[in-house]
C-alpha cells in the first residue's frame, strides 16, 4: 500500500483503521480514511506489541506485522547460502584430503624403495669386505706373533731378531693394503649412505610438508 503516516488519506488508511480495530485498538478508531493522531497512536501501540520501532508510520514491515496479527516470525535456521558454501568448501577439502594422503603414501612407498635399494648395495659391500676382514686378521695375527718372537729374541739372539723386522714390515704392508681395499669398498658405501641421507631428507621434507597441509586442513576445514 506504500508508506502511510500521519496526514495520509484514502482507502488504504480506511483498511489500516479497520485492521487496527480488529486487532484491538483502544480507543476504537473511526474508519474515516484520515490518518490522524489517534490512528498514529494506535499504530505505535501495535508496533510496540509487535516488538517494532514505534515510529507511527506504516511501511512494509508494519503492514506485514498487521497481517500477521503480531510480531513477525524470525528465521532461526542458519542461512542456507552459508551452509551451501560450507558444504562446497568441505567437499573441496575432502578431495584435497584424499589427494594429500595419496601423495604421502606415494612418497612413503618411494622412500621405502629407495632405502631398500641402498640397503642391498650396502649389504653387498659388507659381504665383499668379509674376505678382507678375514685376511686382515690373519695378517695381523702373524704380525703379532712375529713381533712377540722379536721381543723374546732381541736380548738373547739379536741377529735372529733382526731378520724378523723386514718380515714384520712386509706383514704391515700387507695389512695396509687390505685396509686400503676395505676403505675403498667403504668409500662406495659412504657415498651410498650420503645418497640415502639426501633422499630420506628430501622425501621426509616433502612428507612433512604434505602432513602440515593435511593437519591444517583437518584443524581448519573451512579455511
UniProtKB/TrEMBL annotation:
Q: Which residues form the Peptidoglycan binding-like domain?
A: 10-65
InterPro entries on file: Peptidoglycan-bd-like, PGBD-like_sf, PGBDSf
- SUPFAM superfamilies tied to this protein: PGBD-like (SSF47090)
Q: What is this protein called?
A: Peptidoglycan-binding protein
Amino acid at each position: 500500500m506504500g508508506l502511510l503516516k500521519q496526514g495520509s488519506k484514502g482507502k488504504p488508511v480506511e483498511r489500516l483503521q479497520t485492521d487496527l480495530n480488529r486487532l484491538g485498538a483502544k480507543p476504537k478508531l473511526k474508519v474515516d480514511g484520515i490518518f490522524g493522531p489517534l490512528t498514529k497512536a494506535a499504530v505505535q501501540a501495535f508496533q510496540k506489541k509487535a516488538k517494532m520501532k514505534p515510529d507511527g508510520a506504516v511501511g512494509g514491515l508494519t503492514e506485514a506485522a498487521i497481517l500477521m496479527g503480531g510480531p513477525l516470525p524470525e528465521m532461526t535456521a542458519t542461512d542456507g547460502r552459508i551452509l551451501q558454501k560450507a558444504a562446497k568448501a568441505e567437499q573441496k577439502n575432502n578431495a584435497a584430503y584424499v589427494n594429500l594422503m595419496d601423495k604421502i603414501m606415494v612418497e612413503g612407498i618411494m622412500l621405502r624403495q629407495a632405502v631398500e635399494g641402498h640397503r642391498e648395495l650396502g649389504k653387498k659391500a659388507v659381504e665383499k669386505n668379509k674376505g678382507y676382514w678375514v685376511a686382515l686378521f690373519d695378517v695381523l695375527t702373524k704380525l703379532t706373533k712375529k713381533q712377540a718372537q722379536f721381543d723374546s729374541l732381541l736380548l738373547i739372539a739379536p741377529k735372529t731378531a733382526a731378520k724378523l723386522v723386514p718380515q714384520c714390515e712386509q706383514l704391515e704392508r700387507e695389512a695396509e693394503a687390505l685396509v686400503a681395499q676395505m676403505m675403498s669398498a667403504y668409500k662406495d658405501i659412504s657415498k651410498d649412505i650420503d645418497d640415502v641421507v639426501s633422499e630420506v631428507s628430501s622425501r621426509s621434507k616433502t612428507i612433512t610438508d604434505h602432513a602440515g597441509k593435511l593437519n591444517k586442513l583437518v584443524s581448519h576445514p573451512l579455511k
